[in-house]
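Example for tutorial group B:
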């Protein structure tokens, strides 16, 4: 499952804001008392639990525990494994995936949000009345991904009869933006009675191994999980080895072994196991857990090579997470280390320095990294090193050398048999920026187009916004205000249509805000204010006057593929096409800056598309990762896809019957999608590889037949007739279009 792209229509969007999260807390005394306070008939059947009392030892711990109790799948790994086995050329593939994930945006927020929607559906379906969260004891952490998820769940549950309860025992601390209120005071001061040392809920298989060790005060849930009473968590255990020996017999509990291994670590013995577990925690989104494991290891290592391996893993994770300050502080590697280790450790330190605005300090370290990294043995990794080296040259004012490195990359790419799409994108976008800096706007445009063509039919939300933002700036610099206006307007539409604005790619946020790259989350309000300022500025340059708009509360923007019902009308003009509905749809975000941009964008759209005044919801179609419809033909294609019969484009009005729409569909052309990088034909199967973002895809038999013979078909009609006018083939074609295998167009 490509989780970050899942759209869930079964539940409404979860509207967010930057306001305080209000939660209910309960002091633990006994399970019976808690049951009465929660007003439930049976805790084990009507409540779900997540236990953070001994901290989280897996990424998205709360999501994992709730999903296993509900009996639904947990998300797949969201990041590549950064560990001991990818120090060489294979690390280029890891970098490529990290680039895609960064461009997609904050993976942890997207996972938390999409998991929240799935979990809410199941909570309602399974008649769960309460989700009980046991907070971390002093000395343990909530972890950012769990905080984010709980905040989303709290908001999403407001439209249901289910609620969240925080079960306090040892005066837990709560995030600063949470306000926790307690309706009941504890009748008696509770005294710790036990020392059960295994973190979290005890799942069925593990519970059977620990049977006689599980305290009698525990709560046994209906699906076989066991909740350890908070009173059994607070004393230090005198015999952890007994629990550890049982854990080792359960393969699925390797993450729990880490809790014990760190405490018992005396030498280099379990370094490999712990490095691997740290790599898995990073891949799950448990970034702080991964770094905590690795930092604990490094304190115990005596062997220089093993230490270099661990530090390299730490540095690679820091760079991936944009912890540049920490990366810059790392000591230089020992000179007697192998060249590969010296190269990667010098590169990560220099990377941290350049990204914290210390390019002159970084320059000699980059030189050492280039010296020790073999360009023949590791050609792809070397190109990435040249790329970041070029940025440093730019920052020290050596434009010629910056251009020199980027052109060297471009020349190397031209000689490749198989195109490296990620490096091609980065090299092109960087050259566009360099040419923009020297005011060669023609070449800047050429390289921007070259970069964004890589993402055709693949653009994610951040790409859609960034493409329009870059060209809005460029056209304005060239004095083309009319074109700049369309790009700024499309930028705002894309931003307001994004269901995950908090997850905006950090480099896109950096460009819009004119700030440095940061690991801190995106401020939806700050981005909205900047886009509104740019939109107002271009409107003033064009002397546009639009009507005042009292409230943006009922106005919303949404992607068309999230619509519950088909839009009522499509509206367009040259360079821009949208759809609209009079049905009120809940907005994804509520904030002064966001709402102000929403109101301004709607007023401008009403100015150029007057009929929109009769509708409150604006739907945008990215045409499967390309762009909003920019012509009447593209808008008509969207209308056929989403069964919209009424179209106003410019001065012309159209109304199409179902038969006419069907005829348009049959006359539509079909081609292989530009998203595809290559096709691997085996004896009995075809595997499609994409340029970016999407994982390789094995085709079904009918998809294979269509793709292999697509050059024989002039349009949809010819395929329809080849399959004896079976309507199901049209559904196959639409599904292939969604999968980015083909493009259907007029």
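The residue assignment follows.
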């Amino acid at each position: 499952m490509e989780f970050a792209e899942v759209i869930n229509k079964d539940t409404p969007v979860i509207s967010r804001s930057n306001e305080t999260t209000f939660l209910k807390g309960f002091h633990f005394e006994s399970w019976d008392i808690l049951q009465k306070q929660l007003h439930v008939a049976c805790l084990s059947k009507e409540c779900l639990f997540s236990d953070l009392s001994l901290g989280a030892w897996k990424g998205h711990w709360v999501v994992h525990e709730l999903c296993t109790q509900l009996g639904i799948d947990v998300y797949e790994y969201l990041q590549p494994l950064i560990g001991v086995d990818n120090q060489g050329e294979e690390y280029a593939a890891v970098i490529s995936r990290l680039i895609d994930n960064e461009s997609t945006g904050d993976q942890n927020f997207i996972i938390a949000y999409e998991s929240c929607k799935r979990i809410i559906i199941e909570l309602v379906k399974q008649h769960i009345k309460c989700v009980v969260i046991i907070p971390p004891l002093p000395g343990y952490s909530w972890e950012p991904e769990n905080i984010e998820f709980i905040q989303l769940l709290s908001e999403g549950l407001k439209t249901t009869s289910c609620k969240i309860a925080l079960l306090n025992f040892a005066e837990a601390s709560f995030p600063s933006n949470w306000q926790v209120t307690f309706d009941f005071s504890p009748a008696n001061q509770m005294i710790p009675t036990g020392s059960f040392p295994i973190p979290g809920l005890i799942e069925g298989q593990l519970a059977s191994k620990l049977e006689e060790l599980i305290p009698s005060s525990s709560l046994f849930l209906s699906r076989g999980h066991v909740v350890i009473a908070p009173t059994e968590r607070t004393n230090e255990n005198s015999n952890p080895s007994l629990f550890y020996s049982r854990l080792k017999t359960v393969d699925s509990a390797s993450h729990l072994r880490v809790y014990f291994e760190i405490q018992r670590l005396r030498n280099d013995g379990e370094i490999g196991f712990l490095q691997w577990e740290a790599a898995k925690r990073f891949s799950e989104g448990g970034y702080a857990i991964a770094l905590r494991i690795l930092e604990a290891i490094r304190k115990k290592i005596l062997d220089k090579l093993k230490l270099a391996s661990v530090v390299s893993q730490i540095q690679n994770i820091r760079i991936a997470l944009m912890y540049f300050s920490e990366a810059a502080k790392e000591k230089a590697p020992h000179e007697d280390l192998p060249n590969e280790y010296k190269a990667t450790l010098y590169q990560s330190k220099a990377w941290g320095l350049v990204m914290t605005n210390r390019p002159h300090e970084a320059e000699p370290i980059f030189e050492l990294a280039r010296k020790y990294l073999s360009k023949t043995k590791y050609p792809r990794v070397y190109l990435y090193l040249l790329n970041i080296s070029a940025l440093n040259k730019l920052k020290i004012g050596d434009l010629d050398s910056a251009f020199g490195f980027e052109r060297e990359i471009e020349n190397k790419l031209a000689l490749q048999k198989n195109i490296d799409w990620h490096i091609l994108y980065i090299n092109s976008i960087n050259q566009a920026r360099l040419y923009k800096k020297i005011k060669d706007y023609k070449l800047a445009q050429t390289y921007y187009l070259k970069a964004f063509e890589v993402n055709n039919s693949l653009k994610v939300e951040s790409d859609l916004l960034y493409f329009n933002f870059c060209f809005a700036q460029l056209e304005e610099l060239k004095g083309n205000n009319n074109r700049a206006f369309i790009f700024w307007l499309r930028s705002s539409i894309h931003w307001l249509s994004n269901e995950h604005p908090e997850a905006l790619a950090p480099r896109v946020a950096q460009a819009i805000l004119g700030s440095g790259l940061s690991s801190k989350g995106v401020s939806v309000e700050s981005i909205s204010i900047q886009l509104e300022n740019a939109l107002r500025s271009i409107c003033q340059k064009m002397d546009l006057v639009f009507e005042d708009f009292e409230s943006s509360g009922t106005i919303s923007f949404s992607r068309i593929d999230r619509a519950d019902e088909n839009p009522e009308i499509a509206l367009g003009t040259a360079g821009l096409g949208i759809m609209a509905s009079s049905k009120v749809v809940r907005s994804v975000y509520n904030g002064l800056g966001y709402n102000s941009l929403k109101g301004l964008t709607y007023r401008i759209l009403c100015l150029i598309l007057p009929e929109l005044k009769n509708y409150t919801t604006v739907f945008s179609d990215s045409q499967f990762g390309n762009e909003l419809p920019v012509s009447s033909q593209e808008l008509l294609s969207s209308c056929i896809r989403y069964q919209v019969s009424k179209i106003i484009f410019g001065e012309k009005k159209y109304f199409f019957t179902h038969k006419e729409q069907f005829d348009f569909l049959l006359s539509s052309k079909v081609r292989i999608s530009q998203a595809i990088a290559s096709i691997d034909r085996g004896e009995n199967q075809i595997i499609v590889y994409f340029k970016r973002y999407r994982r390789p895809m094995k085709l079904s038999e009918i998809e294979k037949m269509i793709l292999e013979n697509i050059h024989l078909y002039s349009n949809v009609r010819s395929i329809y007739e080849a399959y004896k006018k079976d309507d199901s083939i049209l559904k196959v074609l639409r599904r292939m279009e969604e999968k980015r295998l083909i493009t259907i167009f007029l």
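The first helix runs from residue 31 to 38. Compare this with the pattern of hydrophobic and polar residues in the output above.
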